[in-house]
Amino acid sequence: MDWLLILLAVICGLFYALLMLEQPFNVILSVPLIIAWLLFWITSRQFGLSAPLDLPILLLLVLASVGAFFTSFMELFLPKLSGLIIGVSFYYIITAFFRYRQRLPAMITALLFLSVIVGLLGLVGTDWPVGNHVLFDQIYRHLPAIFDNLGVEAINKNTLGGVLASFPPLLLSLLWDKGGFGRLKSHYEKLSAIPEFVYKGFVAFCFIFCSGILLLTQSRGAWLGCAAGIFLLCVFKNKRFLWVLFPTGMVFLYFLFFRSEGNLLQLISLLDTSQEATLPGRFEIWSKALLILRDFPLTGIGLGAFGEVYQQYFASIVLPSSADVVYHAHNTMLSVAVEVGIPGLLAYSILIGGFGAMSWKMLTCKRTINRVLAIGLACGIFSFLVYGLFDAFTLGRNLEIIYWIFLGCASALYVHDYSLSSSEVSYDFYQENLSSSKKDPAKKKQTRKQNRFLVVYWLVIALIALALVGLNVVLALMISIVSGVGIGVYYVREIEEKHYETA
């Protein structure tokens, strides 16, 4: 099946490159992808590879696709839906391909090169914020602008910053592996010839390179997300880092009461030094996004439609020119809710809760390198979510695919911890046991019960949240997020106890 997975990855990569270059969308382009997936499913006879996250992902895809029946901006909807499908495809490709432990070094190598590729893409294709800082401006003048020369729209510096914010925690975790790579390479003849200082040197280069490009973006939301992810990583590595919270809290209280007269918004304004009045603009966009959500709570306005809806129905007061540039709600959860509705946000939250439960379970993994990778990926996703408080990666947006890649690697590690040993023979043996287990009436009944639990609770919480939209849209939003994360955690733990008894 490997050649099919490689073919799928190539098709998805080419398709996604066309979407990033914003070439005219044609449904015919998706035909090779559909055929390749059908061939893989027929050959492997596996319609679910990611264990607990299959059903939440299916719910999200279905709810996002519903927008095709009512959106007025089909030319914007189809590229975003295609981007989401490609992201999910990469998720399943990664989960399926890294099914043997021998491929764990390949996963690490791929993530390292991915960090370099994203950094290089940012160097040659970003719309750098010239004019905000003299020192940065001198650097920007020496950077190539290949995208501009090709007539392709440049990458937004906040978008690049949000993507890059996920990599430093992962790379730092690989550096701080407590001898994990040394123990890993002792089991593989090809790796044993690589000196550890060469590996650590390359990881250090990737860390410095990504951090440097992240610094150039001047994206404070990305800086905050990256710092939060690194701090969480340090706490996982050593609980003594929790003491850092004390001096940080003291500094926060000092600025809050002595520099801002106890006004939190005034304190945030002190940090908002942008000439574009970022903070007032954010508040205005959030308030109007909540109005849109109040009007379209069930289905949302459709993928990619926020910019047009905002431009046509809302006039900005704080940012007069924002009607031409606002393409999302500048908050990931709010953007998801506006585009796919409260039920879609609930499915997205279940996905995050399931990922959190899987990551927490991986902390108990006996294999050091597995735990190192799992912690790094979890902290990377945490950086992504913190960044999403002030900016957004809407579903199917350019470079949002990194989120699905991280999610796929984490899911592969989780599944491997239960199902796989170190050889293809053990994998085949496990598949035979798993197949026979699925045919067991008691197991099938338990599986249906767990799936019903997820669907019923999703439906009940969605109805409650929808009923509260007219009363308080923020309350409905918070109930959807918190309940979704809780359902995801509980659902994964239930599957964990029942489905992996064959391991």
Description:
By secondary structure, the protein is mostly helical. The protein has one domain (2-499). Helix content is 72%, strand content 1%. It contains 23 helices and 2 strands. A two-stranded parallel ribbon has the order 1-2. Helix 4 (74-97) runs parallel beside helix 20 and helix 19 runs antiparallel to helix 20 (401-419).
What is the distance, rounded to the nearest whole angstrom, between the alpha carbons of the first and last residues? Answer: 22 Å
Mean pLDDT: 81
Give the H and E element order.
HHHHHEHHEHHHHHHHHHHHHHHHH
Strand adjacency order, main sheet: 1-2
* Rg from Cα: 23 Å
Characterize the quaternary organization of these chains.
single chain
Given helix and strand content, the structural type is mainly alpha
Q: Report the sheet with the most strands, covering strand number, pairing sense and barrel closure.
A: 2 strands, parallel
| Residues in helices, as a percent range | over 70%
Basic shape? globular
How much beta, percentage-wise?
under 5%
* DSSP summary: helix tally: 23
Supply the number of structural domains: 1
Which characteristics define this entry?
23 helices, 2 strands, mainly alpha, 1% strand, 503 residues, two-stranded parallel ribbon
Summarize the structure in short.
The protein is mainly alpha-helical. It has helices at residues 2-20, 31-44, 54-65, 74-97, 104-125, 134-140, 146-150, 157-164, 167-175, 180-185, 189-192, 196-216, 220-237, 245-259, 264-271, 278-295, 306-313, 332-362, 368-387, 401-419, 424-439, 441-469, 473-499; strands at 126-127, 155-156.
